[in-house]
Specification:
With about 250 residues, the chain is mostly helical. About 75% of the residues lie in helices and about 0% in strands. It has two domains: about 60 residues; about 180 residues. It contains twelve helices and no strands.
């Protein structure tokens, strides 16, 4: 709940509490009305937050990554420390991954509590952490898969299956140098409507082509990835051995 919403709810609660004390004979009726007002306000806030979340995700899907991060920054500042605020932070990390700030993502997620997270959102947390580790620290990515791989592979949540499968393919290609996924990547390239996700898919196809020794195809796929989502900066990460070898 946003700070101003919490203050308003507390003010409403206080007003009704005073009325209850003033008219003791109606205390139960007043307290019931108090509870209904507060619950109604909470439902309204949750619905409004859901609408904001949908609008923010649309920005990311359309490739407006910087705008997405800026919007999430504004949202996060408006909320008091809470599980919901932590969920917003986890969402923001998706944008930072595409902006080549993966080390920052790892550090932030390590200090972000998943207490009271819905099981599906815990999966999103794990997914974003694995994405960032694949791009920044291969050894830690291997250790992470050892600890959480079973959970990510057998979660049974259709809503996040596409994202997690894509990140697991990223792990195989970038960390384990597995070039056998080239055709699978090509077949799943249109599964997502998100431009950054499609760009990532092309990037991984390029990596597979490079592993096969086909530098021309790799360079062409890299160009396509950059053209599709120009704000995706991780392809040109100075510490990325793939980018360096293509240059």
């Amino acid at each position: 709940m946003k700070k101003r919403d919490l203050v308003l709810a507390l003010c409403i609660t206080t007003v009704f509490a005073v009325l209850a004390a003033w008219q003791r004979q109606h205390v139960y009726l007043i307290l019931s009305a108090d509870l209904l007002v507060v619950l109604g306000w909470i439902v309204f806030c949750l619905q409004r937050n859901r609408q904001h979340s949908i609008a923010s995700v649309k920005l990311l899907d359309e490739g407006h990554i910087n705008n997405f991060v800026e919007r999430m920054d504004v949202e996060i500042r408006q909320f008091i420390p809470s599980p919901y605020r932590n969920m917003l932070i986890v969402n923001r990390m998706a944008g930072l991954c595409y902006l080549d700030r993966c080390k920052e993502v790892v550090e932030v997620l390590e200090h972000t509590s998943t207490w009271l997270f819905h099981p599906m959102f815990k999966l999103i947390y794990l997914n974003n952490m694995l994405f960032a580790l694949c791009m920044s620290d291969a050894e830690r990515a291997r250790a992470f898969i050892t600890e959480h791989g079973e959970t990510l592979r057998n979660h049974g949540k259709k809503a996040v299956e596409r994202f997690i499968s894509g990140t697991l393919r990223m792990y195989s290609v970038l960390v384990e140098d597995d070039n056998t996924l080239k055709h699978e990547l090509a077949n799943t390239a249109q599964d997502s409507e998100s431009l950054p996700a499609k760009s990532t898919n092309l990037y991984l196809q390029a990596r597979c082509a490079w592993l096969e020794g086909d530098a021309d195809s790799a360079a062409n796929l890299m160009r396509q990835a950059n053209e599709l989502s120009p704000e995706c900066l991780f392809q040109d990460h100075p510490e990325n051995k793939f980018a360096i070898r293509l240059s």
